[in-house]
Amino acid sequence: MTKAEKTRQFIIEQTAPIFNMKGYAGTSMNDLTAATGLTKGSIYGNFLNKDEVAIAAFDYNLSNVVSRIGAEINRRTSTQDKLMVYAEMYHQFLSGNFAKGGCPILNTAIDADDTHPVLREKVLAAVLAWKNGITRIAEQGIVKKEIREDENPAQIALTIIAMIEGAIMIARLTEKTDYWNLIMDSLKKYINSIS
Length: 195
Fold this sequence. Notes:
The protein has 195 residues and is mainly α. Helix content is 81%, strand content 0%. It is built from nine helices and no strands.
């Protein structure tokens, strides 16, 4: 990496948690300079504007999530175990052990829905990729006869995503992790019911 590439990567790594916690609108240039210890000019010397930093930060946060979940799925053998990885890994968002600030998909979707079309498109692509990944697992589960053949793989994927993201939102909003546990218990029952 060149010095400029290292600086750019440093800025992304230092600001990614801030964008994830405060959102695009809530993150100020002062937040970025405080997190990096760099001047505004140094940040703008590496990025055109705050938008470009926010997009790079989202990509960084998402890449971390996807790679960690993918690695864990690859360690599992049964379809049910692979599907349960999502519930297990996303539970870590509540404790802050996964990505500081929580789920970057949920956070950015809410923050950028009406205010930032480029980020909204990135989040949409992330959700669709997530849906497609779970759909492939479900399709393979049907082939392996671990999921009933009358089940709809896309419906399975959307149900899992909705339950996980809904559980995160409810648990964070109410500050009751037992609500997360209740919804995840329902998710486990759902996953077992499709086999």
